[in-house]
Amino acid sequence: MKTLKAIYNFIVGDMIILVGILIIAIVLGLIANIGALAPLRVAIGPILIVAALATLSATLYREARGKR
Amino acid sequence: MEWAIASASFLASAVEFVEAFTIVLVVGITINWRSSLVGAFAAAATLAVIIGTLGVALVKWVPLGDLRLFVGIILILFGLKWLKKAILRYSGLKALHDEEAIFEETMAEVRARGGTIAPRVHPFGVALSYKAVLLEGLEVAFIVITFGSSIQSAAGNGNGIGSAAIGAAVAGVLVITAGVLVKAPLTKVPENTLKFVVGVMLTSFGTFWAAEGFNYNWPLTDAFIPILAVIFLAASYLLVLFLKQQKRRQLAASKAQVMEEVRP
To answer: What Å distances lie between residue B256 and A59, B108, B248, CA to CA?
Structure first.
């Protein structure tokens, strides 16, 4: 458990960032590999940019609320 | 010597060297040079083993797409972590004078007294530097092998791979020389600004590589990385403004509350 926590803290140390990026990676993986979602493949780049910014905004918003 | 292939290899490799060297440089400046160089040399050694073992078969056996995806996702995680801290500091929600700053101050004091502190190897810095150099180094190897092999198979003879390798090597030397020259001015940039820029860059590189790992073709290819950096920089700036506004509102609200409480 300690090792896992150390790896988590080393790589990211923030649950919102970790979960947000993992979810978007899974979603993009589905878009890239499922035929029915093929029309969305042209939007993988923009989706990733928006998702990264949304994740960043979410974690910052949580920090800002936590400081109240 | 195949000049056309050497020139093409030079240009393509220069782009990859710049990407790798940028990360080695920022790790060196923001964390420490020991960690950055340990990561870079370890990656170079790994590359030497991979290339020495697989040779031209490298193109067949190394899943570059999967590697890009893995490194990209990790870089996005690292980048967002740094960017979050830097934005919180700029917006005033996190003290600039945190434990890292205290550590830096202590080091400066020891240095002022004439003492020395051996810079410790920082695993985060080593990992960042290692991954960037390994990925970009593999891409350079792919460029050399694919460009070199294409001319060799087209002409039936000639030393295509040798020419491509010379082009790549010249690009590497030029990029490293240019990097050493810009190192000194970069050290004068305030540390938090530098960390902010590093966060933006890691996120930009990570987004670029992760999307490529999903077989997405960016418009303008590698030239899109600076555009990504501008997008993340602009968004971060807006987030800093938003958080500053939030902080002002909170202060005003708590002042009003205190005034109401002390009013008889």
So the answer is: 28, 42, 12
